[in-house]
Amino acid sequence: MSQHSVSLEKGCAERRVVALAGDFTMANRNQIPQLWTTYFQAGAEIEAAVEGAMYGVSFGADGHGNFRYGVGVEVSAEPLSLPDGFCLISLSAGDYAVLRAFGPVTKLPAMFDGLFERWIPENGFVPAPGAVFERYPSSDRNGPEAMEYEIWAPVTTRP
Q1: What is the mean pLDDT of residues 48-58?
Q2: Using CA atoms, how far apart are residues 11 and 47, in angstroms rounded to an integer?
Q3: DSSP labels, 42-97
Q4: What is the helix, strand, coil percentage profile of the chain, to 5?
Q5: Per-residue pLDDT tens over the stretch 82-91
Q6: Which helix or strand (DSSP H or E) is residue 141 part of?
Q7: Radius of gyration in angstroms for the set of CA atoms belonging to the chain, rounded to a whole number
């Protein structure tokens, strides 16, 4: 049931996301869905929110498997204030490897691994500094069994 494609998106503009964030490791990344539940339960109003998609952002990786992950929405301008527990995350301008998929979200970790372990190196790229993010566009196809999602990974050409 999973369908996916990967492409290179060149020269993307910087984006900003207001998100509820937590600390994770590669060993406990399976706990990230709980952060999504907490986000929706918070019911926070986000100033200048851009309609049409939700974001899951991995940022602040330390090279030892530790990272921060935030759940939120893109904003068109920096809000004057943030809801309690929320932060502003900048998504770098530049080139991105983008995996677009429709399928069960349970496949997401395997899709991430495939993008980083195969597609990026096999196509002459290396990961670039910056946050890696998931974008979940609003879609009539989304349901309990499958949904549309995108994985955006900043890349640069191999030296």
Answers
A1: 95
A2: 27
A3: HT---TTBPTTEEEEEEE---SSSEEEEEEEEEESS--SS--TTEEEEEEPSEEEE
A4: 20, 45, 35
A5: 999 999 999 9
A6: none
A7: 15
As a whole number, the mean pLDDT across the chain is 93
Q: What is the CATH number of domain 3-157?
A: 3.20.80.10
Which amino acid would we find at residue 33? P
- What's 13's DSSP letter? P
AA identity, residue 129: P
The two three-digit tokens of residue 152, written as one number: 């955006």
- How far apart are the C-alpha atoms of 123 and 91, rounded to whole Å? 23
pLDDT of 11 higher than 70: yes
Residues in the chain: 159
Query: Which candidate, 109, 119, 111, 106, places its Cα nearest to that of 145?
Result: 106
Strand, coil or helix: what is 117?
Answer: helix
Give the three-class secondary structure for 156. strand
**How close are the terminal C-alpha atoms of the chain, in Å?**
37
Tokens of 96: 């991105």
Q: Is the pLDDT of residue 50 over 90?
A: yes
